[in-house]
Input
Amino acid sequence: MNISVPRRVTAVAALAALALAGLTGTSASAGPAAAAAAPDIPLANVKQHLTDLQSIATANGGNRAHGRTGYKASIDFVKAKLDAAGYTTTLQTFTSSGATGYNLIADWPGGDPNQVLMAGAHLDSVSSGAGINDNGSGSAAVLETALAVARSGYQPSKHLRFGWWGAEELGLVGSKYYVSQLPTTERAKLSGYLNFDMIGSPNPGYFVYDDDPTIETTFKNYFAGLGVPTEIETEGDGRSDHASFKNVGIPVGGLFTGASRVKTSAQVSKWGGTATAFDRCYHSSCDTTSNINDTALDRNSDAIAHAIWTLSGASTPPTGTVFENTADVSVPDNGAAVTSTVNVSGIAGNAPSALKVDVNIVHTYRGDLVVDLVAPDGSVYSLSNRAGGSADNIVQTFTVNASSEVANGAWKLRVQDKASADTGYINSFKLTFP
Output
């Protein structure tokens, strides 16, 4: 995770107006401008895809594993849907363990071919079961998002590409092959790859990859807008297809709801469920259509669409230099103040008279919070003093006259919870210098 790294802004969206936007770009991954809102992804459609994948497995020995007839039938099923929707599809073959494997690549016509946003999921299961959560869930949600792009006639600034990978369960074989076959010039065109592997676990958590900060913030802001806390994904880090892209320098991000690890008591308090495995049927025969949490699948499917629409939208000229910290900082209930720091450098003279301070705090009762901006010399600027009553979260852009302060140095967002019974954390803190 990049913390306190200056970046040239390609867009500055008003978080006060839209909590789900407010993202900036990096030199490697241009950030979005305010884009059209993503459509709702119908849960019923995603579940129908899962029913179809279950039927394919049932008709082909109970699984959809690499080298088995169930996998090829799964690829053919997804390809037919995309062909009918107007995508340009490519079936890529490779060999693993003596069997032919398949990747499916689908390109949506239009968009800047030099700026490609890609989303993907592995389509294969293990040989012991139908693989409906692992990873029918990610595959179905990505498919339905791609179909939503077609239904809406969406024409983003960036070119959209979707991928379904084979032989992931054998060591990310399909995605590694795809990346290895991309010429260096084509790799450079990928502004980001979004990965979705197990997003409907029956005892779910809400985990976000902490790789590219822009992608990470996009997902965290989305869930913050729902009032759903997130955690950084650690259980499967590097064990899914995003690793193939990350290893060659492509910005990556994604979502995950947990596998065989046991949900902690703190996570039960946060998300509900039980202190058992996130997915008790991980890599087993009971990973069927009954092994899905509808709420998690629905939320994550909508989050995928939100990210696609947000990260692929039209870009705008640079408007400033941004310094941002996206590390989560827990705010103790009725406890001591905590801080999130950004280190500003390379700015001549004093800070501006209209310094933009973007604050994203996830909290169940914002009226408990005292929020200040602390300048490098210790000067304090009040942003919010137990305001907002019973509303939750503070996702807002504040304007501060900081013209008396030297710009360079350690700026802190200081947050204190002054009452009992509600909890939260600093999600991100950003300063924009014109």
Summary: The CA atoms of residues 64 and 71 lie 4 Å apart. The radius of gyration is 22 Å.
